[in-house]
Design brief:
The complex is a heterodimer of chains A (335) and B (479). Chain A has 335 residues and is mostly helical. Chain A has 13 helices and no strands. Chain B is an alpha/beta fold. In chain B, helix 4 crosses helix 5 and helix 8 packs across helix 16. Classes of the chains: A mainly alpha (335), B alpha/beta (479).
């Protein structure tokens, strides 16, 4: 209990500092911080459409956040969610290209997740067999994925009528809004359910236990016949599952375009937002869920801030960056 | 400069009693060897003298004056410096900057005056040091010399060398001994921490042996290697906690012609051994003769290069370092209690934490573990209680073989007694025990059979009745 209180306090402190410094940055740049924060934090809660939009933003961040959180449990710094999300989206686009009826939906899920898992297998195996640090491996794969997916979307999967994006999901295979006129699709409950499942997996399953032991102390694991390599593999695999799902959902369940932008705008940066969510949520799946909702509100709020007060959207990037910095400082101190 | 330590005690926050009242004098111009096993307290004692640790109680006098060094710099002002086993120079700075850095941070280049004096000190000791290279680029032997010069430049009269030869090649060891002699000629004192007997015999004017946090003996030349070993690992006062019945016939562990390499060094060289039901086989030897590799290969942590290992009926493993190899300190007792048998508490892949908690509560009661509760973290337990948790978990595995590596190291007398009794009871119940220890007391108290390990080989092996202390001591010293 004391530990929980302490970590809440730490998180609160990081948030506070990030917002204070963010306010100073706004003030120096000539924008009103108080008005800006008001429309950033309160406007999204003032209307159901805005709120649903915030929740829609939270879903992919949550899924990529889980990737990082599961990695942390296994003692990994797995920042590969970014590239795996691209690959998930690519799988969905490939499905849309291959079939034009409802079967594109299951095919999208299958291909997207399979691409993402295959993508994460490379850094995972490099780590296990050759001892390549996972940070190096995943960054490398992120960039390979970035250019590969841009190439695929600009060539074979290009949409002849709209050159700035890929072929669209066939209409029958789209997950359309649950409440008409909002962005709230099945993606949101699906993401939240995933978080609960991951929580149960980590807390109650034999493999979750083994991942924790391996992550905290691989020497102990080895002494008692738990193989840390298997835990690493499993953590990478599960992480790719959720990151891949995030990519798929950004294509099949994201109105209005239901496609992948050629500059990857609708998947770009999700993996890194996920890291923020995971750190803010202290690596706990339910914590990551709450953090991703918060980040979703920020994201939605930033639009209103820009419209209502004229403060540029980019300031939430500043605040998020500061937040990561303060959270990372706390983590480093613990090490 | 004469330094006296009086009744120094040190209890670490994890409950380890590292020192239980040690008194020691160090005279000017002498080389004092501090001999002892790992964990005997030698390094702790010297870290107290050099200001790195604060003693729990006890007093330090320099030339009759009471001193209380608060940190290493404080101790250096008194003329006491320690050269650590894992050298403590700052990478990224040159050798010369590492000497100058004690003066405080500065952006100006190191003064020529300082350079001149440093070079003079080095010359007097016969050192050739590349002062302007990053210390990281220097070989370990040269870094050690930089540390020595640094200590002398800042006025050290008493130099503590902690296991100085572990990082050195044989020719470097030779020249280190020359340096020690020269320091002595300059009237300085040297405390030489080691567990290597040949080194002690070569350079020490006096030897103080520590064992389990106490001064166990003091010697002056000529030294008798066997007596040094005895003082290090314990005298033998055999009082058997009853072992009931003879060892059985059926083996629970067979090892044949086992070879293990660490890099290209053969650390286990053709070991054969058998542990039978109702038998405690004690492998004794001075630490670092391949015991660790042998144990870790048997339990599958390390890979063997050659040979056969057969285990019949499962094994339990009590590692030598509970905090690093047996427990995850950040996790709760419950989580630690099921390590390696998590499957027994799971249904369809999901662990029942209620059942695990009941099991932990049972362990706490049965083994008298003092803990705030089953969900408190293992870190909150004292060293002795952590070990009880490990022993309890392992003995409740129901395996036919128990591999116990230094099971009582760092424990207080009562817990030591308790763990030893448990091992004997386990043996009496028909389990085979492979006990690896460097404590002869323990070996003679528990073992049915004794094997001596020296430089990776079993050099003597037989029933305890036939393995006299004379013989075992000799074999341990490699004679």
């Amino acid at each position: 209990m004391r530990r929980l209180a302490l970590s809440l306090l730490n998180t609160g402190l990081a948030l506070f500092l990030a917002f204070v410094l963010g306010a100073i940055a706004m003030w120096i740049s000539g924008y009103d911080p108080l008005l800006s924060y008001k429309s950033m934090l309160l406007t999204p809660l003032s209307d159901l459409t805005y709120l649903f939009s915030a929740l829609a933003f939270s879903a992919p961040i949550l899924l990529t956040g889980l990737t990082f959180a599961v990695g942390l449990k296994a003692g990994l710094f797995n920042i590969g969610a970014e590239g795996q999300t691209y690959m998930g989206a690519l799988g969905a686009v490939a499905a849309a290209y291959l079939t034009r009826d409802v079967s594109a939906l299951p095919l999208a899920a299958f291909l997207g997740v399979a691409f993402a898992v295959a993508w994460s297998a490379i850094p995972a195996l490099l780590k296990i067999w050759r001892g390549v640090n996972e940070v190096v491996g995943t960054i490398m794969m992120n960039w390979v994925a970035y250019w590969l997916v841009i190439m695929a979307v600009s060539t074979i999967f290009a949409n002849p009528s709209q050159p700035e994006e890929s072929v669209k999901m066939p209409e029958a295979a789209r997950l359309t809004p649950l409440v008409a006129g909002t962005d709230l699709t099945l993606a949101v409950p699906l993401a939240y359910l995933t978080a609960v499942l991951i929580y149960v997996f980590l807390r109650y399953s034999v493999w979750g236990y083994r991942i924790s032991i391996s992550g905290q102390n691989p020497t102990v694991a080895k002494a008692y016949r738990i193989r840390p390599e298997q835990a690493v593999l499993m953590a990478f695999g599960i992480g790719a599952l959720t990151a891949g799902l995030a990519g798929v959902l950004q294509v099949v369940a994201r109105p209005p375009s239901y496609s992948l932008a050629r500059n990857l705008a609708n998947v770009y940066g999700l993996g890194f937002d996920g890291i923020t969510a995971a750190m803010l949520g202290r690596g706990h799946p339910i914590g990551v869920l709450l953090a991703s909702v918060f980040l979703g509100i920020l994201q939605e709020g930033a639009r209103h801030m820009q419209i209502e007060v004229g403060t540029p959207f980019e300031f939430i990037r500043v605040i998020q960056g500061l937040l990561i910095l303060f959270l990372a400082l706390q983590m480093l101190r613990k090490i | 400069m004469k330094v006296s330590l009086r009744e120094i005690r040190k209890v670490f926050s994890d409950g380890t009693h590292a020192l239980r009242g040690v008194s020691l004098d160090i005279f000017p111009g002498e080389v004092l060897a501090l001999l002892g096993e790992n964990g005997a307290g030698k390094t702790t004692l010297m870290k107290i003298l050099s200001g790195i640790y604060r003693p729990t109680s006890g007093e330090i006098y320099v030339d009759g004056m009471r001193v209380k060094p608060k940190n290493a710099r404080d101790a250096l002002k008194l003329g006491i410096a320690m050269v650590h086993q894992h050298l403590s120079l700052i990478p990224g700075l040159t050798a010369l900057e590492n000497v100058a850095v004690l003066e405080g941070a500065s952006l100006s280049p190191v003064s020529t005056e300082l350079r001149r004096r440093v070079e003079k000190i080095a010359e007097e000791l016969g050192f050739e040091i590349e002062w302007d290279r990053d210390v990281e680029e220097l070989p370990l032997g040269m870094r050690q010399r930089v540390e020595i010069v640094k200590a002398l430049y800042w006025g050290a009269q008493l130099l503590i060398l902690d296991e100085p030869t572990t990082v050195l090649s044989p020719p470097e060891v030779k020249s280190l001994f020359q340096v020690v002699k020269r320091l002595k000629e300059q009237g300085r004192s040297v405390v030489y921490i080691t567990h290597k007997i040949p080194e002690v015999m070569e350079i020490a004017d006096r030897v103080v042996v520590l064992r389990r946090g106490l001064k166990s003996a003091e010697f002056s030349p000529p030294y008798d290697a066997k007596r040094l070993v005895e003082a290090m690992v314990g005298e033998v006062k055999t009082e058997a906690v009853e072992r009931l019945g003879k060892p059985g016939e059926r083996p629970v562990l067979e090892v044949k012609d086992l070879w293990v390499y660490d890099g290209d060094r053969a650390v286990v060289q053709g070991v054969d051994l058998v542990v039978r039901e109702r038998e405690i086989l004690a492998i004794v030897g001075v630490e670092g003769n391949g015991q660790e590799h042998l144990v870790e290969t048997i339990v599958g942590v390390r890979k063997r290069s050659r040979g056969m290992i057969k285990i019949y009926g499962g094994y339990a493993y009590i590692p030598d370092d509970r905090q690093k190899k047996a427990l995850v300190l950040e996790m709760s007792l419950v989580e630690n209690a099921i390590t390696g048998k998590e499957n027994e508490f799971a249904k369809r892949g999901l662990i029942s934490w209620q059942q695990a908690e009941r099991f932990t509560a049972k362990l706490i009661e049965e083994f008298g573990i003092v803990a705030p509760g089953p969900w408190s973290s293992a870190r909150q337990l004292s060293g002795g209680n952590q070990q009880k948790l490990v022993v309890g978990r392992e003995l409740s595995r129901g395996a036919k073989l128990v591999v116990a590596h230094q099971p009582t190291r760092g424990l207080d007398v009562a817990t030591t007694e308790y763990v030893q009794t448990l091992l004997i009871k386990t043996r009496n119940a028909g389990v085979g025990v492979l006990l690896v220890t460097s404590d002869l007391d323990e070996a003679y108290k528990l073992a049915d059979t004794i094997a001596v390990m020296y430089r990776g080989k079993i050099v003597a092996y037989g029933p305890v009745e036939e393995m006299g202390i004379e013989l075992v001591g000799k074999k341990m010293a490699g004679l």
